[in-house]
Amino acid sequence: RFYEKVQALHQDPEALVDNPLLAFSLIKRLHSDWPNIVYSEEATRNTQALHAGLREMEQELPGTEDLDGAARALMRLQDIYALSVKGLAKGIFQRARHPLLCSPGRHVSLSANNCFHMGKMAYDTGDYYHSIAWLEEALSLFCHSCDSWNLEDQSSLEDTLDHLAFSYFMAGNVSHALSLSREFLCYTDPSNQRVSRNVAKYKKLLKMGTWENWQGCQGPPPLLSPLHALLGPFSPQPAPERLLPLSCSYETNSNPYLLLQPAKEPQPYVVLYHDFITDAEAEAIKGLAGLWV
Fold first, then answer.
1. Are 232 and 166 in contact (CB under 8 A)?
2. Which pTM does this prediction carry?
3. Residues 187, 191, 192, CA angle at the centre, nearest 5°?
4. What are the two backbone dihedrals, phi and then psi, of residue 37, each rounded to the nearest 5 degrees?
5. What pLDDT score does 172 carry?
6. Domains of the chain
7. What is the pLDDT of residue 232?
8. Cα–Cα distance measured from residue 251 to residue 60, given in angstroms and rounded to the nearest whole number
9. Residue limits of the Prolyl 4-hydroxylase peptide-substrate-binding domain (predicted)?
10. What was the pLDDT predicted at 133?
């Protein structure tokens, strides 16, 4: 079954270039899904042959950097074109209330396991904005999967709830982190001491209304090292009232072309130029770029 999926993907090589979702799915399948099957308990009859085949091809398979690079590229597309995660998971490149950005030659959707990997990669880099969006979609897909599980899957509903709860906590939403942690204890692992301690800590933080002792909460351990329950290494996002005041000024940089229409420049210095090109020019650029994504 796994071989048939990979073989089907190779039947149309141009589709890999045409559809970044398909490229990500294939790279992930070759990088992690195949080893998960090869080294599973279910593969007892042909273990030696499978291991030999994997060792023979291992140097030619995509590595971790390739997989993470494909995930980051997909997130860049998500940000640049304001694409919804739910739409991407369904294989649709479309902004809200806009026509399709592009229609790849081959349609592909992402599984709950794929969405979890996207969220987990963002989580590991402290990018909780993306981790929450992708883990929420993974949670939704896991909940609608009717407890079905594929041999190559590396994640589960339990992993998703665990990482999503701590992502919300690190993003400053303690109440939702508490709610998800309670769901984790109720439906997946009631005996998990780390999550139980986090629940108590979340309650205390909500009662105190402060982040003073946030370091006592622990995020989920790495998936490949279940014996190490490490402290979350990232600092919490500051509360909105503690953010520095922002301002915006008109800037010409002594450029005569900007005298009639100066660029809008914020302070602190974060370069985000507004009204720099016309809407028609922007649509033309996006149309040209869509051919190469």
1. yes
2. 0.62
3. 90
4. -75, -45
5. 87
6. 1-110+117-149 (1.25.40), 156-222 (no CATH), 245-290 (no CATH)
7. 37
8. 51
9. 113-207
10. 95
Question: How many beta carbons lie within 10 A of that of residue 153, not counting itself?
Answer: 19
* Number of C-beta neighbours around residue 86 at 10 A: 14
Residue 50, number of CB atoms within 10 A of its CB: 17
Cross-strand pairs, 249: 265
Cα-based torsion angle of the residue sequence 261, 262, 266, 267 in order, rounded to the nearest 10 degrees: -160
Output DSSP code: residue 273. Answer: -
Question: What share of residues in the chain are helix, strand, coil (percent, to 5)?
Answer: 55, 5, 40
Closest CA to 134 of 24, 236, 27: 24
pLDDT at 178: 93
Structure tokens at 149: 């599980």
Q: Which structure tokens are listed for 31?
A: 């990088």
Q: Which of the residues in the chain have pLDDT under 70?
A: 1-17, 41-47, 146-152, 210-219, 221-248, 250, 252-253, 257-260, 265-272, 290-293
Find out whether 172 and 236 touch, Cβ atoms under 8 Å. Answer: yes
Asked whether 101 and 95 are in contact (CB, 8 A), the reply is yes
Name the residue type at position 137.
Answer: E
Write down the pLDDT at residue 239: 47
Distances (CA, A) of 279 to 186, 262, 283: 50, 17, 6
Distance of CA 153 to CAs 36, 111, 169, 188, 261, Å?
Answer: 7, 9, 26, 17, 54
Q: What is the pLDDT of residue 238?
A: 46
d(CA 211, CA 239): 9
Task: Please tell me the total number of residues recorded for the chain in this structure.
Answer: 293
Half-sphere exposure of 12 (CA within 13 A, CB side): 15
Residue 82 to residue 273: CA distance in whole angstroms: 17
pLDDT score at 258? 67
The crossing angle, in degrees rounded to 10, of helices 157-170 and 112-124 is 30
